Amino acid sequence: MPESSVAHFYDELADDYHLIYSDWDAGMRRQGDALDALIGRDRAEVLDCSCGIGTQAIGLALHGHRVTGTDLSHRAAARAGREAARRSLGLSTAVADMRRLPFPDGRFDVVVCADNSLPHLLTEQDVHAALAEMRRVLRPGGLLLVSTRPYDDLLRDHPVSTPVHVHRSADGGERTVTFQLWHWHDDGEHYDLEHFQLRPAGGQWRVKVRRTAYWALTKDRLAGLAAKAGFPGARWRMPQETGFFQPLLVARAGEQTLASPARPRP
Fold first, then answer.
1. Three-state secondary-structure class, residue 13
2. How far apart (Å, rounded) are the C-alpha atoms in residues 147 and 246?
3. CA 233 to chain centre
4. What is the topology classification, in CATH, of domain 153-215?
5. By the number of CB atoms within 10 A of the CB, which of 6, 112, 132, 246 ranks highest?
6. Calculated CA dihedral for residues 120, 127, 139, 91, nearest 10 degrees
7. Beta-bridge mates of residue 170
8. pLDDT digits (tens, 9 = 90+) for 175-193
9. CA–CA distance from 183 to each of 119, 192, 217 (Å)?
10. Residue 110 vs residues 26, 55, 67, 193: alpha-carbon distances, Å
11. What pLDDT does residue 262 have?
12. Where would I find the H helices in 120-249?
């Protein structure tokens, strides 16, 4: 999928993204708590390279980490900055493709790529390019945290939809209904996603549909790609262990022996 299509999906979703949560602030705190426990140190220099509207980035900033957030969507990154400012938190944000990160080598202690963002990249070449960039901007021994959907389970069943989620406004009045339809490709690994949001308007339902695509990467495949990009010994930690809502690939940056992919320099 062209990067412009992914950016457009999240540009369109940026204002409504919090509505996929029953309580976005509570979700932000839970995710921040889980990631902070894995980081295991104070005031780390953290890059969230798929920050969206700030769910993980703000959660980590609440723990005192020095967080930089980047995203392909300019509207999402801008909202992340505004949401952090509303909470009196420092969060530097920028628009960037995770395959071409605008930072010098060894800039960060931790790189986070959460919320099933990496599987928007639909080829091994692009996934390797992103992981190699994450390795490049990490200090030796730096920590990588990548979360995806539990694709090993999903590939057994090839589900065609997600459960319906209902968000209620703070006063319990307005409802927003969210669900997804999945359309699997013939290869059984890639799928197109239609994201539906329904909100009441004038006695009827107003419907918004946004579309994007994913690659259902298994745990072994993603760990293998991470190893090739400079993350030996990557391992998976599951939600029941970490308290994070998705499986997490946890890895340390090895020696920088691989050349970074060609990219324009900032």
1. helix
2. 6
3. 22
4. N-terminal domain of TfIIb (2.20.25)
5. 112
6. -10
7. none
8. 999 999 999 999 999 999 9
9. 15, 5, 16
10. 23, 16, 9, 30
11. 41
12. 124-137, 151-157, 219-228, 239-242
Which tokens in the block code for residue 216? 């259902």
- Residue 88 CA to residue 74 CA, distance in Å, equals 21
pLDDT in tens, 35-90: 999 999 999 999 999 999 999 999 999 999 999 999 999 999 999 999 999 999 99
Return d(Cα 236, Cα 243) in angstroms, integer: 13
Closest CA to 238 of 150, 167, 119, 107: 150
Domain 3-149+217-252 class, CATH top level: alpha beta
Q: Which residue has the tokens 């921040």?
A: 32
CA 10, CA 210: separation in Å to the nearest integer?
Answer: 9
Look at the alpha carbons of 100, 101, 104, 107 in this order and tell me if their dihedral is positive or negative: negative
Beta carbons of 91 and 78 less than 8 angstroms apart: no
